[in-house]
Write a structure and sequence with these properties.
Layout lengths: L1 E5 L9 E5 L9 E10 L2 H8 L1 H7 L29 E2 L3 E9 L3 H5 L4 E5 L10 E5 L3 E3 L6 H4 L4 H13 L7 E4 L5 H13 L2 E6 L5 H7 L3 E4 L5 H8 L5 E6 L3 H8 L2 E9 L12 H5 L4 E4 L2 H6 L3 H16 L7 E6 L3 H8 L7 E5 L2
Parallel strand pairs: 9-10, 9-12, 10-11, 12-13, 13-14, 15-16
Antiparallel strand pairs: 1-2, 1-4, 3-5, 3-7, 3-16, 5-6, 6-8
């Protein structure tokens, strides 16, 4: 079978190759999935460049493992470690369960269409992949295959930050950086359902009309407008209650100065690829706080019952079209160079997918 394999970390695509691999066999509690489509997300590039590995090496629970080639855990005292290349890329997708390992739950999934969260070392950018049953979920029939390929990572993150991390209240203001992204557009649609107001922050007017059509209360184009001035006017001098940031860098510094009393910022991305300077008194004076969000760490803290309720709520929102995502282009695996180049460009019209059909 065909698979996209990373041989070593790289800032370009030179260490990725289309390789032939034997079809894997599921073990106990696992399923073999024949892939239909898989998504390309920003997190995939973190596995290509080694960004996650570098971040994990700085965490306290990996302090004694910071030397070269040591295992780096995603959570304290965990066996969930960052894989070492070579590994198969791809974080999520959709497919049909063709074979199951031992286990009642696994066997119930045979023949079902499932969305899955995989990731290296056995990712979704291959024709077949093996995944633990706890990382796969039967897809609502209302979603077509392409939408199902994007059913978990962004919807889960949007739901987690709005309803749990921030716990956004009706009538409050939420400001979003990178507002043209698929995740931010989901949050804007959620705002109409949960009755909070949104400020969408973008660089140019490329997506302004579209974001307003989704329900954004204000779109600020930072190339032509002053962020703080526009926020001051929109909130009548009060500031925003919440910030969701996927950019970092100087923009996060500017947004920090826009929060109101007891404001809450959640950081979930680093698209600027530069560190930011946060000013202590700008957090102290408004009694504001900053949280980080990483889906794996967040889900790891949830009980089985909580996870089931989260999936139930995601399904209900998906059926209402909240997570409907525009698809820009679809590529076969052998056109991975074009696909990854396209997915890394800002301002595209939607998500880039791989087709395994």
């Amino acid at each position: 079978m065909k698979a996209l394999e990373l041989s070593d970390f790289s800032t370009d695509l030179s260490t990725i190759a289309l390789v032939d691999k034997p079809k894997p066999t599921p073990g106990p509690g696992q399923v073999l999935v024949r892939m239909l489509y898989s998504a390309i997300n920003p997190s995939d590039f973190n596995f290509i460049r080694g960004d996650y590995k570098n971040a994990l090496s700085r965490l306290i629970w990996n302090h004694s493992s910071a030397q070269e080639n040591a295992d780096l855990a995603f959570e304290p005292l965990s066996q969930n470690v960052h894989p070492k290349p070579p590994y198969i890329l791809g974080g999520e997708g959709v497919g049909v369960v063709e074979q199951t390992g031992y286990g009642i739950i696994a066997k119930r999934l045979k023949g079902k269409r499932v969305a899955l969260v995989a990731g290296p070392p056995e990712g979704t950018w291959q024709q077949y992949t093996v995944v633990d049953v706890k990382k796969s979920v039967v897809v609502p029939s209302e979603l077509d295959d392409q939408q199902a390929a994007m059913y978990l990572i962004n919807p889960l993150a949007a739901y987690a930050m709005v309803k749990d991390i921030l716990d956004v209240k009706p009538g409050s203001w939420l400001m979003l950086s990178g507002a043209g992204s698929a995740l931010s557009q989901m949050v804007i649609k959620m705002s109409k359902l949960y009755r909070f107001k949104t400020i969408a922050v973008v660089r140019s007017d490329h997506k302004t009309k579209h974001l307003k059509s989704l329900g954004a209360d204000l779109v600020i184009e930072t190339n032509s407008s002053d962020l703080k001035t526009e926020v001051y006017k929109a909130t009548k001098g009060v500031g925003v209650d919440y910030v969701m940031d996927c950019i970092g860098g100087e923009l996060l510094e500017d947004m920090q100065g826009c929060v109101t009393l007891n404001g809450h910022i959640v950081v979930y991305g680093t698209l600027a690829a530069t560190n930011c300077q946060l000013y202590s008194r700008d957090l102290m004076m408004p009694c504001a706080k900053i949280s980080g969000f990483f889906a794996g760490g967040w889900m790891q803290q949830k009980s089985l019952f909580q996870k089931l309720m989260i999936l139930r709520n995601l399904s209900a929102l998906a059926k209402q079209g909240i997570f409907q995502t525009q698809v820009d282009k679809v590529y076969p695996l052998d056109e991975y160079q074009q696909a990854l180049t396209s997915a890394s460009k800002a301002g595209r019209g939607g998500k880039v997918l791989f087709s395994h059909l």
